[in-house]
Design goal:
214 residues, mainly alpha, 0% strand, Snf7_fam, coiled coil, Vacuolar protein sorting-associated protein 60
Length: 214
């Protein structure tokens, strides 16, 4: 039976929208060829009528020209219909393609949302907050340890600025006294020397001259 009538599996697939558009465009092109042929006939009839006088011969040519013009108008009407059909199908194809792209986008977004929910489901916000609290405690303990290790045992916790300034003035005063005492020791004559002290401004030659004259 399948050999005689054929099986359902052997049926040809239905033409797609793109196939229908291509078929319509082909029909339009074939009709345009016929219209160009009719235009040629009309041009020939027009030339013949321009050369004939009024009479049966000219009327016969006019009848043929009218019949050709009527056929041309019919073809032009068909082309207009086919052009509109092709436009409608192209619009439908564009809408279908846009809808297909939209559905693909929606599917991708849906899958992405599922993945995001799945990943967020693995995150425990309470655990994260606990980690933050533990980190704060550890940092605070580290700061306390650093402060303890940096404690000074020789310097009091509080130092009076006035005491420091007074001590600094005392040190400067002691330095001035030490400098004056040092110069006095240089000018002082030992006990075992009878001569009067020599002025620092005198040279040895001047000193010898004073001794000779004395």
């Amino acid at each position: 039976m399948n050999r005689i009538f054929g099986s359902s599996a052997s049926k040809k697939p239905k033409p797609s929208l793109q196939d229908a558009i291509a078929s319509t465009d082909a029909r339009t092109a074939s009709i345009e060829v016929k219209i160009r042929k009719l235009d040629g006939e009309l041009a020939r009839y027009k030339e013949q009528m321009s050369k004939l006088r009024n009479g049966p011969g000219k009327e016969a040519i006019q009848t043929r020209a009218l019949r050709t013009l009527k056929q041309k108008r019919m073809y032009e009407s068909q082309i207009a219909q086919l052009t509109q059909q092709s436009f409608n199908m192209e619009s439908a194809a564009l809408a279908t393609e846009n809808l297909r792209n939209t559905m693909a986008t929606v599917d991708a977004m849906t899958q992405a949302n599922k993945e995001i929910r799945k990943q967020y489901g693995k995150i425990d916000i309470d655990k994260i907050e606990s980690i933050h609290y533990d980190m704060e405690d550890l940092l605070e303990q580290a700061n306390e340890i650093q402060e303890s290790l940096g404690r000074s045992y020789a310097v009091p916790d509080e130092i009076d600025e006035a005491d420091l300034e007074a001590e600094l003035d005392a040190l400067q005063f002691e330095e001035e006294e030490e400098g004056t005492s040092y110069l006095a020791d240089l000018n002082k004559v030992p006990d075992f020397v009878d001569e009067p002290p020599v002025e620092l401004s005198e040279t040895p030659a001047q000193h010898e001259a004073i001794k000779t004259t004395g």
